[in-house]
Amino acid sequence: MERKILQPRFKDSQHFKDFWTKGNGKHLIDFSGAEVDFKDFDKFSKYFYHVDELGDEVVKEVYFTKKYSEASREIENYIRNGVAEHEDVPESVQKLFRQTQTVPDWLDYNLLKSGAELCMRCNLDSLISLRDYCLIGGYDYAYLNKPLIVTEALKKGAVKRLSETLDFWVNVTRYDALEVHKKGYEFAIKTRLIHSYARLSIKKHYRNWDTENWGEPINSWDMMATYIGFSLVFMHSLHKLGNTISKEEEKGHFHLWKYVGYLLGIPEELLPDNKKQATEYFYLWTSIQPSSDKDSVLLAHSLLNESLENPILKYKFQRRNLRYLHICCTWYLLGDDVCKRLQIPDVPFKKGFPVTKRMINKIYDSTVSREARIQKGNKDQTKVLADYLRVTQNSNFHH
């Protein structure tokens, strides 16, 4: 079937224009100095129909030929110990590990360290940003969510999904985590293969997948947008919450996510080096995404209600209070238009908490040493992750 040439089909729609002229898109342009236009659209749009074929081949040759647990053990062994050339290993596996164990020329370990330090230093603000801006903001893009909907992620529940995202994020943003065979490297490879497994399962079982409109499932362009969420959008959120970010940290943060993207099999020309590039790339991608649909609203509400379902906090009033604080941050970070589309509940005094937090951050940043903030952030984030893993791995928790 001849596929139509992709156009920036939503560039004249209200949600696109509002986002880039008065919403967070405008703030991103101001924040980054980006110059947005459509001259590079064709260069990027082809990736809407492009996937990580290397990852897919590994899944076909390893996961689809044996029990899932057996396949996972085999891949884990390669991740931790490498693949010897002479071993009897499928060609696709050799190729995948050749790529991921070859450190690209551009990689700078000092920059990776600065990027990891920014993530740790901003402590709970990092987790608020991930959840109340990056994750929930992503739900506003209807086509981006389709793989989540068709693989029935809603049934798995938001606690589990958040726990998995947190597990990935914490493990790739620690010191030296991305060195070959280390924990962050392992998470990147496993996540890459989970994406391939999900993509092949969707293609096999979901007959109604609309490739022309939605792109290939978990395509390279959507992956770029997701990783711009972890880099640009995340950093913009920290900025909104009053964190000061040095030039070195900013450069390091983009470098870190560029390398994670490389390990995940995202084509290098889709991985931005700085906030200006990231905003320009993101602008093009948003022009092919319609705004929220009913699935978006369901995903957003599932995430908001996670605080009520999650047994980490013992008492109901604590859980209700936590949900309220997340709602306040969501309104503050995402803005009115997106929150109304996602039907985020309107709550009283919603600016109170984020504005207070912003003021406290300004003081904290100028009075506590950077070193102490990094240490405390690492400790607090690791504790939150441990709490999540405890409740999701607890056999009584079936959400």
Automatic annotation (TrEMBL):
InterPro entries listed in its UniProt record: Lcp-like (IPR037473), MPAB/Lcp_cat_dom (IPR018713)
Domain ER-bound oxygenase mpaB/mpaB'/Rubber oxygenase catalytic: 156-346
Classification via PANTHER family: ER-BOUND OXYGENASE MPAB_MPAB'_RUBBER OXYGENASE CATALYTIC DOMAIN-CONTAINING PROTEIN (PTHR37539:SF1), SECRETED PROTEIN-RELATED (PTHR37539)
Protein name: DUF2236 domain-containing protein
Taxonomic placement: Bacteria, Pseudomonadati, Bacteroidota, Flavobacteriia, Flavobacteriales
